[in-house]
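In this supplementary section we document a worked example of the pipeline. Step one takes a protein sequence of length 284 as its only input; no multiple sequence alignment statistics are reported here. Step two produces a three-dimensional model, which step three serialises into structure tokens for compact storage. The input and output of this example are shown verbatim.
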Amino acid sequence: MTGASAVGQLQLTAKQHKTIGVVAADGKLPVILARCAKERGYKVVALPITKEAQANLAPYADVNIYVAPGQVRRNFDLMQQNGCDGVVFIGKIKKLTALRSLHTFDWFAIRELMQLHNLSDDAIQSRIAFLLGERGMPILKQSEFLQELFPDVGVISKRQPTAQEYVDIEFGMRIAKEVARLDIGQTVIVRNSMLIAVEGIEGTDEAIKRSVKLANGPVVVCKAAKLNHDQRFDIPTVGVRTLNSMKCFGGGGVLAVGAHETMIVDREEMIAHAEKNGIAIVAV
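The serialised model returned by step three reads:
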């Protein structure tokens, strides 16, 4: 075997042995990521925490095992048994759902939670990353597989925001960054330079619906990540469901997201939906 052939064979072997664990919740992102990983030659070990996610991942997973939320020890063991070289956490896990699933947490998870100084997202995520790193399974950034979903600066929809909407975007994004820094949420909703709603534990969609009702008309939704956001976890994401939450009588409204830090799912479908409902989408 020549030197060039030997190198090629080594590269092929390494690629064949790349195995990624995908801890997945609901939504389209886990499917997109798993499909991308398969196209790159990864073996995909899917560990969905919902039955819906398990069904969605079935066409792209080499291994597909449902694990109830909080079964941390079982997750770790399954990843190691299947030779995972890295792990990705993907999909939206609602905090209310997590709270209602506390009875499913294993003793390993409970012990680790009790050692934390607080139960903020950062504290929990940092501990999980440390524990997986100890076992030789680093957490990978979602952006390593989904870079094409992050928008550049600019207007994405056909409709441009009005001058007043741009004022609201600047006002809202500034507040959204601060709210994200405080680990409250990633989204705020404003109108005419007034804060209408802040995303809480109910999630983005419900916060938007509440704001539309309060404003009795179109609103400006601003979604942002905090400064130096850890892209291994909970990247801000928007999709058609976000736009559906913005529907109001007469149409209108703006969805503003942080450029290069927010993922846009089903972009073409979103643009068509925005055009139909008079919504502007902009990355800032």
